[in-house]
Structure formats: structure tokens, C-alpha cells
Design a protein that fits this description.
Layout (H helix, E strand, L loop, with lengths): L12 H11 L8 H13 L4 E5 L2 H11 L7 E5 L8 H5 L3 E5 L10 H7 L4 E7 L8 H10 L3 E5 L7 E2 L2 E2 L6 E5 L12 E5 L2 H11 L23 H12 L1 H18 L6 E3 L14 E4 L7 H10 L5 E2 L13 H4 L4 H8 L1 E3 L8 H15 L1
Parallel strand pairs: 2-3, 2-4, 4-5, 5-8
Antiparallel strand pairs: 1-9, 6-7, 8-9, 10-11, 11-13, 12-13
Helix pairs in contact: 1-8, 2-8, 3-7, 9-13
The structure holds pyridoxal-5'-phosphate.
């Protein structure tokens, strides 16, 4: 392939210096960067507490466990998201319920949530897909009316804003990913943001083998997880957070350039801009309108022949081998199955040049001829 990359970070001397500094702090302040990163990341999002974890999957696992989700409970998730949004539900022995998405935002549909609520439903995980924001007002109303926990998986939404509120500020808790491919990276890493002090203390104890601030040494209170971060990893995130506005600007510029270059093709859908806000534009997704008669498989194959990489829009989770529940869900979740079949993700690495974006868009124009 050409050197057009799907994903990759922006690393400067600031990150390198932070890592080198952390490498000199094994004795004094061995958790300096973890604590500073947690605190400042929470502050940036208007949350009271931040808990760094090895990745976003473990953040969600901690939160669901902290909320007491377990066998007999059901948790509603959107069909189209990364498997990490729902895998922790299964780890805890609860049932995953797949819900349909909206055709404009591609995010979880409030109407479909209502249809899927049963007496066993405990929580809804709303995912800010590709930086798009779900209709949070409607979703919040549904979860409040039915007394359900609302969880926001904001892994793809650093920089997104919905009606003046930053992604990561919705629901009882939100989770972020700092995977190599995400807008802010620590290579592998995640963060749980909370406002409730009791839940925060519970999640802190769950994160470190049942040890709380008042636990006697080696006198663990419970058998729990070990999801601790480390300083060198957090140092990268701390430096990235100092550059957050710049990183969001790079992502948004990529989306805008795609929008401009593809503007003269009718019946194409790109990421939506949330009301009174903005899309953090983690990745640009392109959904071909029905008139193009273009499937994601065909588009990816045709683009590959032109040396242009692309990835499929998330498959409906109920359709993938891990769950194999297409028969059960397809009829209930028609939008997810329809949109996903026509969608691809475009290259979105931080080092993408405008010239490369033009190359990608010319490729798209060619395969649509
Ligand atoms: C990347 C991602 C995750 C998982 O992140 P990890 O840090 O790899 O565990 C979870 N949810 C969504 C929506 C993601 O895109």
C-alpha cells in the first residue's frame, strides 16, 4: 500500500520529554503522571474524578462492576460499535441486548432502547460513534424515566461537544480509550470519569485487588481486578492532554478536507455535526447512499486496487461470529444492518497530508464511476 495510514498518533518532543522524565521517577512520585493525568483529564471534561486504567475495555469493566451489574441483569448497547463496548457485560455474566441505531448519527436510538427495556434492564451504554453524538437529551430522558444507569462510551469522542457539553460528561460515568489509534494516545490506556464519590471509591478498590485507602497492607478486603496504570504510560497521555486542542484540530481538519473533496458527489453521508456542538472527528466514516449501489466489501476491494486503505463500518455486533445472533436481531435492528452494509472508514492517521486526502477522494470518485 501507499504510505497512507488508517490511524496513528501525533508525537512531539513534549511526549518524549515527559516519558524521559517519568523514567527518572521510580523512587520519588512513582505515580506522579498517573495522578496528574487523571486529575486534569477529569477537569477538562467537567468531571469530579478520573481513574486511569490499562485500556478502555477495563474502564468499562470497572464501571459496570462498580454499579453491581451481574448475572440476571441486562445491558442495552448499540449494534454498531467496537466489541469492547459490550464485552465487559459478558465478563460479568450479564446479558447483552443489541439495540438499533439512528440513520443520521449512526448512534444508539432512543426509540429502540424503549423497545428493548425489560424488568431485567439495568443500564444503557451510549457510544459516541466515530465522534458523532447520540441524541443525548432523548436518551437521558428514557434512562431517567426507567431508572436505568446511563453510561457513555466516549472512546471515539475526544473533542466532541453536544449542546455545549463535552463528550464524556454524560451519564453516571464515561470511558475513554488511549489506544494507539485514538485521538489521544498512551499506546494502550483508558480512563473512567465519574462524579459520584461513593462510586469512585468503589471503582478505586475494584481496580487494585480490593485495596482501598484505609486497607491494612496485605489485608485485601475482596478479590477484585488489577487494572492499574503506570507512570511512563500516563506521561505520554499527560503530554498529549497539553496538546489536546491541537490534536482535535488535526482530526477536524481531516474531516473537513474529506467533506470538501467529496462535496460534489451526491448521496454520500459523512460524520454528522452534533447540535450546538462539534464532532471530534476521530475517524471519517463514509456511507454510500442507496443510489450508488456500493457495498462496503466492494468499496474496500476496489480502493485496495488503487493502493488506498479503508476499513469496514462496524458490522452489526449481532451478526459477527462472537455473538452469532443475526436471526434474533436483524429484523429488530434494520437501520444498523442497512447503514453498516454501505459504510467504510477512511484513512485518518494524524500524519495524513492534504495531498493524500485528495488521492483517497479521487479513488472514491473513480470507484463510483
Ligand atoms: C477503541 C474503543 C474501545 C476500546 O478501547 P481499548 O482501549 O482498546 O480497550 C471501546 N469502545 C469504543 C467505541 C472504541 O472505539
Amino acid at each position: 500500500m501507499s504510505n497512507i495510514y488508517m490511524a496513528g498518533p501525533s508525537i512531539t518532543q513534549l511526549e518524549i520529554d515527559a516519558v524521559v522524565d517519568a523514567m527518572h521517577h521510580w523512587y520519588e512520585d512513582p505515580y506522579y503522571y498517573c495522578e496528574a493525568f487523571q486529575r486534569e483529564f477529569a477537569e477538562y471534561h467537567g468531571r469530579q474524578f478520573g481513574i486511569m486504567t490499562p485500556n478502555c475495555t477495563t474502564s468499562l469493566h470497572l464501571l459496570l462492576a462498580g454499579l453491581g451489574i451481574g448475572p440476571g441483569d441486562e445491558v442495552i448497547v448499540p449494534e454498531c460499535t467496537w466489541i469492547a463496548s459490550c464485552a465487559p457485560i459478558k465478563y460479568l455474566g450479564a446479558k447483552i441486548v443489541f439495540c438499533d441505531i439512528e440513520p443520521d448519527t449512526w448512534c444508539i436510538s432512543a426509540k429502540s432502547i424503549i423497545k428493548n427495556i425489560t424488568s431485567a434492564t439495568k443500564a444503557v451504554i451510549a457510544v459516541d460513534l466515530f465522534g458523532n453524538m447520540p441524541a443525548m437529551d432523548e436518551i437521558r430522558k428514557v434512562t431517567e424515566d426507567h431508572n436505568l444507569f446511563l453510561i457513555e462510551d466516549a472512546a471515539e469522542a475526544v473533542g466532541s461537544i453536544y449542546k455545549g457539553v463535552k463528550a464524556g460528561k454524560f451519564g453516571i460515568g464515561s470511558t475513554f480509550s488511549f489506544h494507539r489509534t485514538k485521538t489521544i494516545t498512551t499506546g494502550e490506556g483508558g480512563m473512567l470519569l465519574l462524579d459520584d464519590k461513593g462510586l469512585y471509591e468503589r471503582c478505586m478498590l475494584l481496580r487494585d485487588h480490593g485495596r482501598g485507602p484505609h486497607t491494612k497492607p496485605y489485608f485485601n478486603e475482596e478479590v477484585t481486578f488489577k487494572y492499574m496504570p503506570f507512570n511512563v504510560q500516563a506521561a505520554i497521555g499527560y503530554a498529549q492532554l497539553k496538546r489536546i486542542e491541537k490534536l482535535i484540530e488535526i482530526k477536524r481538519l481531516t474531516l473537513e478536507q474529506y467533506r470538501r473533496q467529496l462535496g460534489d458527489i451526491v448521496d454520500l453521508q459523512l460524520n454528522s455535526e452534533p447540535p450546538a456542538g462539534r464532532n471530534g472527528a476521530w475517524i471519517t466514516a463514509l456511507v454510500f447512499g442507496h443510489t450508488h449501489n456500493m457495498t462496503k466489501q466492494k468499496a474496500i476491494e476496489e480502493l485496495a486496487k488503487l493502493n488506498i486503505p479503508a476499513r469496514p463500518f462496524f458490522y452489526p455486533l449481532s451478526s459477527i461470529p462472537a455473538f452469532n445472533q443475526e436471526n434474533e436481531y436483524k429484523a429488530n435492528n434494520p437501520v444498523a444492518y442497512d447503514v453498516s452494509a454501505r459504510g467504510i472508514n477512511l484513512p485518518g492517521a494524524m500524519n495524513l497530508t492534504e495531498k493524500q486526502i485528495v488521492t483517497v477522494c479521487n479513488g472514491i470518485k473513480k470507484i463510483l464511476k
